[in-house]
Amino acid sequence: MSAPHFLIAGAGIGGLTMALSLAHRGISATVIEKRTGFGELGAGLQISPNSGRVLDELDLTLPLKRVSVSSHGLLIRRWSDGTQLLEMPQHPERLPTPFRMLKRNDLHTVLLDAARAMPNIRLMVGRAVHEIAQDETSVSVALTGQSGNGETIQGLGLIGADGLWSQVRDLTGDTSPPVFTGYEAWRALAPGSKAEKPRVSLHLGSGRHMVHYAVAGGRETNVVVIRPTKQAREGWSRDGDTQVLAEHVAGGSQALRELVSSAKGWQVWSLFDRKPAAMAKGRIALLGDAAHPVLPFLAQGASLAIEDAAVLARLLAERLQAEGAPGVPAAMAAYAAARAARAARVQEASRSNGRTYHLGWPWNIGRDIGLRRLGAEGLRKRYGWLYDWRDA
Ligand SMILES: Cc1cc2nc3c(=O)[nH]c(=O)nc-3n(C[C@H](O)[C@H](O)[C@H](O)COP(=O)(O)OP(=O)(O)OC[C@H]3O[C@@H](n4cnc5c(N)ncnc54)[C@H](O)[C@@H]3O)c2cc1C
Predict the structure, then answer these.
(1) What is the domain extent for residue 154?
(2) pTM of the entire structure?
(3) Looking at the 3D structure of the chain, how many domains does it have?
(4) Which of 13, 65, 141, 355 has its CA 20 to 30 A from that of 149?
(5) Index of the ligand 1 atom closest to the CA of residue 11
(6) What would the pLDDT profile of 79-106 be if each residue is shown by its tens digit?
(7) Is 60 inside any structural domain?
(8) pLDDT band at residue 235, thresholds of 50, 70 and 90?
(9) Which residues does 116 contact at the CB level (< 8 Å), separation at least 6?
């Protein structure tokens, strides 16, 4: 019997974590990526302990330490005058897995370097999944792209990790489209600040909010402003006009305005929501944004993709060992069953945060009183189910 081999569509955070999770279990993977170059500017990510533990188990602790900053907690302020609403201190030195803050591109590079170092991972860039066929023993994928026209590759299964606009999701018959939320995210990098301990800061305003945190070893600050808009644009990002943003933040506190004006290279993402997909169909599974995109109001989209990868790789390895290749559909079905409720809960918790963050007068007064009453311990307890997650 030939060595087990899987196909993964998409070399994003989810797809690369999937390839690494399989490779560490002795299973080979080919990752098909439609882009030829990587690298986004101005986009930061928070990687909370639930997904950070998965990355640690893939031996990425050291490379991640070099590029990330460990958070010392969360600070929530009012948009208009900077009044402090809640402070939740954290002591990273006491946590086995820190709450990491880093540039998305730095995380991607760590994953890409690790994947390139594994002999049982093959990366095919500049090719997109075009057609899929599955039978009782394998999946065939027809590729398009630079040199991929007409090329067909085969594996024991296909994992669609190709993001919000997933072609794999479409090809498995789920054509429910992403729905524009009426919001867009502006992201940029500002110079780092030595004035305070690195932590996540949140500024809540009516119909808008801002998040900022240290990245790149503290040399830079990732700044994200969420604002309502009528116009949606597909795709990953586009350049933002600083004049439009300056007008949007004009009613914000002085510190908020100063931070926004010190940030450079604004990129804008339209925010889309999408119903969760069926996460497995025969020998095809979906993970990450392809399966259940998460709005950024809980900072969990990449984390959920990383968790998905850990669970799916474990279940595939277990079934392959017990039953060989015929066990793949059952492993994928078990994965869907294991992940569906958590993914839906995270999606809903994020939507709910968005609604709460953006409350206008007078409801925001009730929210602010509620936040003060909740306090640091209340907030920690509220999210225990999220950050304490571990794979079986
Ligand atoms: C403003 C904002 C802030 C965020 N902050 C956080 C945060 O703090 N923490 C967090 O965990 N998440 C955060 N997220 C969410 C996070 O960025 C995404 O959830 C995450 O990148 C999803 O990873 P993925 O691998 O599923 O998809 P993607 O990262 O989208 O990767 C998909 C890959 O598939 C490729 N591809 C697409 N189509 C094809 C095809 N047909 N064939 C082959 N390849 C294809 C794409 O080129 C891409 O490389 C944020 C998102 C936004 C917009």
Answers:
(1) 5-55+101-177+274-354
(2) 0.96
(3) 1
(4) 13
(5) 49
(6) 999 999 999 999 999 999 999 999 999 9
(7) no
(8) low
(9) 123
